[in-house]
What we know:
Pfam families: zf-like. The protein is mainly α. It has four helices and two strands. The protein is globular.
Amino acid sequence: MIELAKNHLKKVLETCGANRNCEYYPCHFDGQVCLWCYCPFYPCEDYELGEYIERKDGSKIWSCSKCFWVHRIDIAVEILKEIFNLTKDKGIDEALELLNDHELMLKIKDKVKEKYPVNR
């Protein structure tokens, strides 16, 4: 395998697999899929997936620390498929602008969650 392909494959494996090289791994569970290290639905405000917690200063913040759903392989891949379907005919900047729509992202979450419920 040529070096450029090997380096690219390494990035894909670190991004899409269980990135055991990450200093925070596992942040949710051993064997988790790290594709959605930063959840595209944050904050989803879905109480099956997270909860508001209190900060030291008394303010509230959405916590996903107990969310396992987005880190399952079937769900991670399904989310990616939905995103690809929406962006397949768009350039990167246009796709990012589209996906910056939080309501649209929550619709993707709901669609995937309907197909793959949390407690399955």
